[in-house]
Amino acid sequence: MRNIGAIVIAAVLLFGCAERGSDLPRLPALAGEFPAEECSGLFGAGGRQFVHSIDFSMDRGYGTTVVGITTLEPAGIRCALLSVEGFTLFEAAFDRDQGLSVLRAVPPFDAPHFAKGLIADIQAIFLAPPGEMRPGLAENGERICRFTAADGEISDVILADEGCPQIRTYTRDGLLQRVITGRDCRWSDAGLIPRYLELRSYGRSGYTLKMTLLRADETT
Amino acid sequence: MKRIVFLLVLCCLCSLFVEAFAGNDAQPFRLHSIQARFVQEKNMEILARPLVSTGSFIFKAPRSLRWQYHQPVPSLLLMHEGKVRKFVGRNGRLVEEKGAQLDGMQMVLAQLSDWLDGRFSDTEMFKVVSGDAHRLILEPQQQGMARLIASIEITFGENRALIDSITLREGPEATTTITFSDRILNEDIADEVFTSK
After folding, report:
1. Is the interface score ipTM higher than 0.85?
2. CA distance, residue B105 to nearest chain A CA (Å)
3. Is A151 helix (H, G, I), strand (E, B) or coil?
4. CB contact under 8 A, A84 and B51
5. CB under 8 Å to A139, separation ≥6 — which residues?
6. Helix residue spans in chain B (DSSP H)
7. Which of B40, B51, B103 is closest, CB to CB, to A51?
8. For the whole model, what pTM was predicted?
9. Which residue in the set A1, A53, A63 is minimally distant from B1, CB to CB?
10. Distances (CA, A) of A154 to A130, A150, B19
């Protein structure tokens, strides 16, 4: 319990008040274009549930493993975290109109900002980024689908000829927030589904999620 | 998380209790150890279909436990002489999670001797609220625990000699049912089984 508590506290620091280091990679400039159609169909529309084994590790050395359940619905997201023994540690629902509702949170998962941060990570991993999309080429030749949200945050989806696209999110100031890398992607009607995902979050309290897909189910 | 440890051991302890009072003899036999396999089915409203785990456990009186999940997420919990070690499968091998569940272990061990003596109804953590030849319902004694666990139901086999299953209710729409099989009683088990993976 102490172990998990330390992780959650660190995560709260990250989501709540993390300072961004000046040495983090910055948003790359784009020059040139490629067909916008290549950026479509990467993300599903909903009606899908994923169950992952999640190894959570902080840069400071803390870590634990949980089971994550993520349900993508047309109206929003439902998610839960279970211990590896199957006990419900956290459950929440996010509705696009009504916002975030925490249905169950066993201490220390009831810490402020934890739910908000978790939903933000889920949105970054599973949903098409918000905002207008513009395709462009990076200096190194990467084909990037760049989404700019209304609040100025930017999400780059870097296409790959084979394999899984990579997602990088940046603050409105252009500093790198997180990198999401998938492996062993399979096409489905829910978009590209990676068998393995790794989310690396940067900042003062950086952390890494290593997610192994246990199963994917249709829910509608 | 410490509640999890408690629940895992509860399963063993309930088995021990029933086994210890099984049979037709006037004197209950003394149980030294039990080994069994289990299937655990988790149901939640959010789940499109139940989450099924399989595993096995070994218990040796008075306070040694090896509780292991084989699928879908390998993990191992070892308890022996007041020490708890937890391992989780990573990259194909079990890696120890340091510093976990120490508080929970103290709580669990406090319960252990009570249940071995058959004291279900007056333990610190749970009370028996109803029961018959085939079923026992426990509810938390303490408000803190009641926020996490609504009740625990234990069902017995037809001859009452063996426990069939244990159902943990976290709430109206979240249950975890553990069904036991392939029990082996009173074999000699080395202490090393409870100290190393």
Report:
1. no
2. 11
3. coil
4. no
5. A28, A29, A31
6. 2-20, 102-116, 143-146
7. B51
8. 0.84
9. A1
10. 9, 9, 62
